[in-house]
């Protein structure tokens, strides 16, 4: 198996936008052929609501906002900067997103849909342990991509202290979905306590996101794979 970092550098950031961990700079994102989810993943869902100019304008705003929010932070990105990057007028911008909170929510909802598609493709028709190994490999590959700044949801939560804020509601909803996915994998593996194992797997995923940004991304795939498998195997019932 090749180095995740070496392999990932062959592909530009714009082609690995399927998850919320990388700058989503285009509407046509696909996983490089040969990655764990390449045969399952398609372009992300349309970003515009409806057809015609309105849908295109909304998509351009979301594309620009997604790249800037991820690269520079939510608070570090002004509406004027997004308007300039999208190449639209202020009137068009505020017609689609009257408040910044609405735009951030739309950005995270889009990222959640993309991340879920990537996760589901990775675990599709795979046995539980293999599914975890494939997820770890994919996370490691994405961690090596240019512009990687960790998890978009963790980043957004760090900038939004109010747990009742609509932004945090989206973050919490996606994290519950992620927990439920891991719990389902753990249950299929036959562990004694799927909920506890799922919490451990989510924690390991979070740590990998931070480690991939602050530490050595080339080590994420192998380290995370070993940690995932150990978390599951230690909770399997003892053989009779």
From TrEMBL:
Superkingdom of origin: Bacteria
DNA-binding residue intervals: 78-97
Gene3D superfamilies listed in its UniProt record: Tetracycline Repressor, domain 2
Pfam families (alphabetical): TetR_N
Residues covered by the HTH tetR-type domain: 55-115
Protein name: TetR/AcrR family transcriptional regulator
The organism of origin for this protein: Cellulomonas shaoxiangyii
Keywords annotated in UniProt: DNA-binding
Region Disordered: start-end pairs: 31-54
Record-level Gene Ontology MF annotations: DNA-binding transcription factor activity; transcription cis-regulatory region binding
InterPro entries recorded: DNA-bd_HTH_TetR-type_CS, Homeodomain-like_sf, HTH-type_TetR-like_transc_reg, HTH_TetR, Tet_transcr_reg_TetR-rel_C_sf
């Amino acid at each position: 198996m090749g180095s995740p970092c070496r392999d990932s550098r062959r592909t530009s950031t714009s082609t690995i936008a399927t998850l919320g961990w990388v700058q989503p700079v285009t509407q046509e994102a696909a996983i490089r052929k040969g990655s764990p989810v390449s045969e399952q993943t398609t372009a992300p869902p349309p970003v515009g609501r409806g057809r015609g100019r309105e849908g295109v304008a909304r998509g351009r705003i979301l594309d620009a906002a997604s790249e800037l929010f991820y690269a520079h932070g939510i608070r570090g990105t002004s509406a004027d900067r997004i308007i300039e990057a999208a190449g639209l007028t202020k009137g068009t911008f505020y017609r689609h997103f009257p408040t910044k909170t609405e735009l951030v929510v739309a950005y995270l909802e889009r990222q959640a849909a993309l991340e879920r598609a990537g996760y589901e493709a990775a675990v599709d028709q795979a046995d539980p342990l293999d599914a975890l190994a494939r997820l770890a490999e994919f996370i490691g590959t994405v961690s090596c991509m240019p512009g990687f700044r960790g998890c978009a949801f963790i980043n957004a939560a760090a900038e939004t202290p109010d747990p009742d804020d609509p932004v945090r509601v989206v973050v919490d909803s996606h994290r519950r979905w992620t927990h439920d996915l891991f719990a389902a994998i753990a249950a299929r593996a036959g562990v004694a306590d799927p909920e506890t194992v799922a919490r451990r797997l989510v924690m390991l995923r979070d740590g990998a996101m931070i480690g991939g940004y602050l530490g050595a991304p080339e080590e994420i795939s192998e380290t995370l794979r070993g940690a995932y498998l150990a978390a599951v195997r230690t909770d399997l019932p003892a053989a009779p």
